[in-house]
Amino acid sequence: MMDSERIKQLIEAGLPDCHAEVDGDGHHFQAIIVSPVFEGKLILQQHRLVKDVLKQHFDSGELHALSMKTLTPEQSRAGQS
């Protein structure tokens, strides 16, 4: 079973200059992810980048559900939510 800290580590290792906050109950997780790699990309493209990082964990069933909010550093600094 995955935990919040492990998911955070995987996301931050898989995306350039990324900062992630992950919370969850062991089955369902929520994440706020900030990375410059999201710049100029649609939300769907941003979410796909994160899901690609976690693909093997989704495929194995180790990670079941992750809702996410993705932001560029500029959006994060501006306090967008």
Automatic annotation (TrEMBL):
Pfam families: BolA. Coiled coil: none annotated. Belongs to the BolA/IbaG family. This is Acid stress-induced BolA-like protein IbaG/YrbA. It comes from Natronocella acetinitrilica.
